[in-house]
Design a protein that fits this description.
Blueprint lengths: L1 E4 L4 H11 L5 E3 L17 H16 L3 E10 L20 H11 L7 E11 L5 E12 L15 E3 L4 E2 L5 H7 L1 H16 L5
Parallel strand pairs: 1-2, 1-3
Antiparallel strand pairs: 3-4, 4-5, 5-6, 6-7
Helix pairs in contact: 1-5
C-alpha cells in the first residue's frame, strides 16, 4: 500500500517510514509526487486539524494520506496554548516569543504540569479514517535549558530523565515523544483494521 506522508518535515517522514515499516507500506512524500497544497487548519482540536489535513491531502493525491497535529497543553493555563501552540504569541510568533509568553503566563503559578499531545489521522479517498493520539507528560521549568530541538523543547522537562527535550539526543527524544506514541497506536489500529491493501 502506498501512503502519503502529508508533511515536508524530513524528520517526521523518516519517523513515519520507520514506525510503519514491516506493514508492507510504502511512504511517499509530497515532493516525490510534485504535490503542493495549502490546507487551512481551523479545527478546535488536534484530532480535527489532523483529519482536515489528511482528508485534503488524500483527495489531492488520490491515495491514503497520513497527517498529524500537535502542541503543548499546560494544566495551569486550562490547556493552553493547545492548538494555538505555534502561534501562541501572535501572528509573528517565534519559538523564543512563545516561550517568553508561556513563562510569563506561569510566573504566579505553582502548578507546572503539562503535556505534549499529538493526534495522527490516516484518511482514504473512500472516506475511511483511522485516528490515534499520543501524550508526553512533563513539567514546565522556569528558564530554557539545552540547545537541541525546537518550539517549547527547552522548557519542557521529562521528570524521569531530569532533562528537557532540548537536552536530549534526537534518538532519546524520538523514542519517548508524543508523535512516536501516536504513530505506534496508529500502527496497531492499522494492523487491526483490515484496511492494509494495495
Amino acid at each position: 500500500m502506498k501512503l502519503l506522508a502529508a508533511t515536508t518535515n524530513r524528520g517526521k517522514i523518516v519517523e513515519i517510514a520507520e514506525i510503519l515499516s514491516g506493514l508492507g507500506v510504502t511512504v511517499v512524500t509530497p515532493e516525490e509526487i510534485d504535490l503542493h497544497i495549502d490546507v487551512k487548519e481551523d479545527g478546535a482540536t488536534f484530532a480535527e486539524n489532523a483529519l482536515i489535513k489528511a482528508r485534503a491531502w488524500s483527495e489531492a493525491a488520490g491515495m491514503p494520506a497520513l497527517a498529524d497535529d500537535s502542541g503543548l497543553c499546560v494544566d495551569a493555563l486550562d490547556g493552553r496554548p493547545g492548538v494555538m501552540s505555534a502561534r501562541f504569541s501572535g501572528p509573528d510568533a517565534t519559538d523564543e516569543k512563545n516561550i517568553e509568553l508561556l513563562l510569563r503566563s506561569l510566573q504566579s503559578k505553582t502548578q507546572r504540569t503539562a503535556r505534549f499531545v499529538c493526534a495522527v489521522a490516516l484518511a482514504w479517498q473512500t472516506g475511511e479514517v483511522i485516528l490515534a493520539e499520543g501524550r508526553y507528560e512533563g513539567i514546565i521549568i522556569d528558564e530554557p535549558r539545552g540547545r537541541g530541538g525546537f518550539g517549547y523543547d527547552p522548557v519542557f522537562l521529562d521528570p524521569e530523565l531530569n532533562k528537557t527535550l532540548a537536552q536530549m539526543s534526537p534518538g532519546e527524544k524520538n523514542a519517548r515523544s508524543h508523535r512516536r506514541k501516536a504513530l505506534d497506536a496508529l500502527k496497531t489500529r492499522l494492523q487491526e483494521s483490515g484496511l492494509l491493501h494495495d
